[in-house]
Amino acid sequence: MPEGHSVHRITRQFDRNFVGRQIAVSSPQGRFADGAAVLDGRVMTRAMAVGKQMFLEFEGELWLRVHLGLYGAWDFAGEILVDPTIASANGRMGQTNQRGTDPIFDDAGENSLASIGAPRKTRGHVRMSEQTRGLADDDLEWPPPVVGQVRARLMTAQTCADLRGPTACAVETPDEVQKVLDRLGPDPLVGDPAENEERFVAAVRRRKVAIGQLLMDQAVVSGIGNVYRAEMLFRAGIDPHTPGNVIPEELVRGLWRDWVELLRIGVETGQMMTMDGLTGDAWRQAMASRDDRHWVYHRAGLPCRVCSTEILLEEMQARKLYWCPSCQK
C-alpha cells in the first residue's frame, strides 16, 4: 500500500498538471460513471493529501476523494510537468531524483531519471503507485488508449491521468470530506506543526495499545505504513509491543519528529530511505536495492546491522512486523 510520501507526491503532480484547468472526467470501466458525470467539464481548483488519502477539489464545492489501498495506481500520460520534488516522467512514482547521477534501476526494475533544476515538460507515460513498475513511451497516441480496468480518467488538453484499482473513489461534499479529515490523525505536511505533535503525543500516551499497532492506526497518525512503522521503531529503539501509555513522553515526541524528517525525505526523493549517512557507492546501492535502504524491514532472519541479532518477523494485526529483539527493548 502506498505510504504517505507517495500520496503527497502524486498530489503534487496533480497540482502541477491539473489544478486551474478544465477537466474531462470519465469512467471507462463504468464503476464510477455517475461520479464522473458530475465532475466532467469542471475546473479542478485544489489538490490535497492527508496521509494515505488524496482529495481533488472541483469548482462547485465538489471533491474527488481517492484512497489507493493495496492495488490502486495512477497512470499519467502526455505532457507531464516535473520538478525536483516530483518523480521523473520516465519512472514510476516513488523513485528518487538521484542527485544528478545516471539513472539507477533497482532490483524490482524500477527507475527514475534525474530531475534537477527548472521544471520541464516531458512527453511520456508514468505510473504512480507503490507496487507497480514505470512505463515510458515517446510515441503515445492521443488520447491514450484505455488499457485494463480504468476506474476514472481525468484529462486536460495535454495530460491524462488514469486511476486503476483504488479502495475508494468517490465524489463528496465539503461536509463529507470534513468528516473524513476529522477521523484522520495528524500529517506533518498538513496543518500547524506544533499542534500536530501535541495531537500525536496525546493519542499515543492515552492508549494501552501496542505502539506497533498505534503507528499503523490512521486515526493516531496519518501516512505511516508497514515500512515506516518498522523503521521508526528500530531507529527509536522501542519494542513494538510496548503499550503507548508507558512510553516516556520524550520518546513519543522523538517518534513524531523522526516521522516529520522521514516523510520529508520520502517526498523529496521518492524513496523510503531510513538509513542515515549513506554516501557514494553506499547511496547508489541503497537506491538500487530496497534491501539496502532499511535497518530491519524485509530482513527477517538476517543479522541486525547494529548488533548482529537475528531480525524477527511476526504478524501484528495481520500485517508483517520486522524488529530486532536486542536493539528494541
Automatic annotation (TrEMBL):
SMART domains: Fapy_DNA_glyco, H2TH. The keyword Zinc-finger applies. Residues 295-329 form the FPG-type domain. Keywords: DNA damage, DNA repair, DNA-binding, Glycosidase, Hydrolase, Lyase, Metal-binding, Multifunctional enzyme, Zinc, Zinc-finger. The keyword Phosphoprotein does not apply. Belongs to the FPG family. One of its GO terms (biological process) is base-excision repair. This is DNA-(apurinic or apyrimidinic site) lyase. Transmembrane segments: none annotated. InterPro entries: FPG_cat, FPG_N, H2TH_FPG, Ribosomal_uS13-like_H2TH, Znf_DNA_glyclase/AP_lyase, Znf_FPG/IleRS. Residues 2-100 form the Formamidopyrimidine-DNA glycosylase catalytic domain. Its EC number is 4.2.99.18. Pfam families: Fapy_DNA_glyco (PF01149), H2TH (PF06831), zf-FPG_IleRS (PF06827). Its cofactor is Zn(2+). GO terms for molecular function: class I DNA-(apurinic or apyrimidinic site) endonuclease activity; damaged DNA binding; oxidized pyrimidine nucleobase lesion DNA N-glycosylase activity; zinc ion binding.
